[in-house]
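Instructor's aside before we start: the two examples that follow are unrelated to each other. I chose them only because their records fit on one page, so don't look for a connection. First example below.
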Amino acid sequence: MLTMSKAKENDKELAKVEEMAKTTKGLIEKILGDVSKSSAGKQIALGGASGWCTGYLAMKVGKVAAMAVGGGIILLQVANHQGYININWDKIYRKVDKVVDKVEEKATGEKAPWMNKACQFAQENSYLAAGFVGGLLIGVASS
């Protein structure tokens, strides 16, 4: 239960936070302002810094995601091979083929013959293909 003194303390803390938010917002607006009206050098520097931050964070998040997906693919393949799970590869291949065909047709307007060969190879060598994809993602994550 809040006492009067604790309630007043909370109100004071809230007021401090609100004041700090206003001050920070004002500082950011002073520094950045309307960037489109700034000099080319300032725009390039700001764009470069924000791009670097975005790229750095994307790589950090991307590495974790790639490691998780790659490891998951390899674990699924091992579990399938050991008989713990049964993956209906025909159903997966049909779904993947439909999606790949739609993407190819939208992107290029025609089907790419090399893509059909790669899909056929992956279907015939599912363990090799899944291991490759998992290893590729782990390699990206560990770079």
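Example two begins here.
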Amino acid sequence: MVTRRRIQAHLRGKPHGLVKKEIDKVKLWAEALDLVESDEEILALPPVPDTSQPIEALGKPKSGGFRCTFTTDCRTVSANSRRRNEHLWKVHGVELDLKPGPRKAGAAEADADLTYWRDGVFYQQLFAKGPRSEYFEVARGHDLESLDAEQVRAELAVQQATQAFQAKSKEARKKEMEVI
């Protein structure tokens, strides 16, 4: 998502790479939209419930995240161990006394690190940087694979119904042409 203030910077950078003239057209178009204007408005947005469906406009949620369980009201989601440890230290005052340097896969330290975290979390991100750029959990308690499969089935049913309608319509036109 992009705020009104960030439209120019967003469109100038990758992957868009637009020039000022093109950006001005987009900004003019965006003036008619109900967009978030300020950081205060962003911070006032309510948190996304953990059990909510993924926000389609943000793309498919990432998997393999970790949700902090140190307290029930902590909503922190992390994707890497350095940020998990940093969160525990800065927010909860927990230091895991890990030795610096590379870690061996499956080491006992990794188990200590996961004491305060729930793994297998699906997560998304509203903004790439700035206020509310943190990850948030989505689809808790939902089986995303079965939801995806159901959506594919529904799309296939619509496609089949459309094809059947088009075939009947073509047949009706053919009969009509024969009468004429």
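The chain is about 45% helix and 10% strand.
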